[in-house]
Amino acid sequence: MQKKLIVGNWKMNGSLAANQALVRGVLDGLKGLQVNAAVCAPNVYLPQMQAMLQDQRALDLGAQDVSLHEQGAYTGEISADMLREFGIRYVIVGHSERRQYHGEQDPHVALKVQRALHAGITPIVCVGETLAERREGRTEEVVKRQLAAVIHVNGHCISEVVLAYEPVWAIGTGLTATPEEAQQVHSVLRKQLKAATEQAQRIAIVYGGSMNASNALTLLKQPDIDGGLIGGAALKVSDFLAIMAAASQCATAS
Ligand code: PEP
After folding, report:
1. What's the CA gap between 53 and 198, in Å, rounded?
2. Could you read off the pLDDT of 181-212 as tens digits, one per residue?
3. Does the CB atom of residue 9 touch ligand 1 within 6 A?
4. Is the dihedral of CA 174, 15, 56, 64 positive or negative?
5. Per the confidence metrics, is the pTM higher than 0.85?
């Protein structure tokens, strides 16, 4: 069964009580759905999530960032090996909010991907253009440059990543790329992956940017959209489950 991948990015939201209610609701509603699912929680809540998610396989755990350093005098940083100790399966790398507010650039993102892969964690590598770049007709150039930096450092290991196309103008804004716009960029990224690895077809390329219960199905039906990275809608049990139900409808026999 070829399943879509739906990942919730909680960003800097949650509390011990809210996380517990959210995850309980999601685990209940996930039963019977044909979907690969994960939530990326703030680091301080990873032990709580690890405890809640043990003894089940329906919902994986992810983090939202990782240090590009291995260990040492980097106050405030969290290494990939540390994340691994908390049962982390995925880590988001190069999210536009990290690029925008924390000065992360393509070479940093490429090194973070390398650290995650060395620790046995699947990086979810985010690429995407700003509104100005889209208006200038530079979308493909921008996402290809961002992906090229990751391929340059990680070579054929690129087959081990999940790629997320997240147009910056669609994140948290309520604006979404049309299914055709998203598919077009995903097909460009797939082509670039094909030039780097024979495994390109099995790399999940997920879409992120105001995906919600109403637009998920049409987006997920696109041939090169293998799932979703969900921000706001991942914080409400019913919305997140509706997206996963849409993903389940799109699961295909492999
Ligand atoms: C995100 O943060 O990766 C994201 C896609 O957010 P939202 O769904 O809220 O646009």
Report:
1. 34
2. 999 999 999 999 999 999 999 999 999 999 99
3. yes
4. positive
5. yes
Catalytic residue, chosen from 95, 97, 108, 186, is 95
Give the integer Cα–Cα distance in Å for 20 and 28: 12
Q: Classify 39 as helix, strand or coil.
A: strand
Q: Which atom of ligand 1 is nearest to the CA of 208?
A: 5
Taking the alpha carbons at both ends of the chain, their separation in whole angstroms is 5
228 lines ligand 1 (CB under 6 A): no
Instruction: Please give the structure tokens belonging to residue 53.
Output: 């998610």
- Which tokens go with 178? 């049309």
* CB neighbour burial string for 174-199, b if at least 16 within 10 angstroms, e if fewer: eebbebeebbebbebbbebbeebbee
Q: How far apart are CA 225 and CA 206, in angstroms?
A: 6
Percent of the chain with pLDDT over 90: 96
Q: How far apart are CA 110 and CA 123, in angstroms?
A: 10
The stretches of the chain forming alpha helices (DSSP H) are: 16-30, 46-53, 80-84, 96-101, 106-118, 131-135, 139-154, 179-196, 216-220, 237-249
Catalytic residue among 156, 166, 186, 198: 166
Q: Where are the alpha helices (DSSP H) in 35-164?
A: 46-53, 80-84, 96-101, 106-118, 131-135, 139-154
Structure-token pair, residue 94: 């190069």
Q: Which domains does the chain have, with CATH numbers?
A: 5-253 (3.20.20.70)
Any residues with CB less than 8 A from the CB of 164 and at least 6 apart, and which?
92, 124, 125, 126, 127, 205, 206, 207, 208, 229
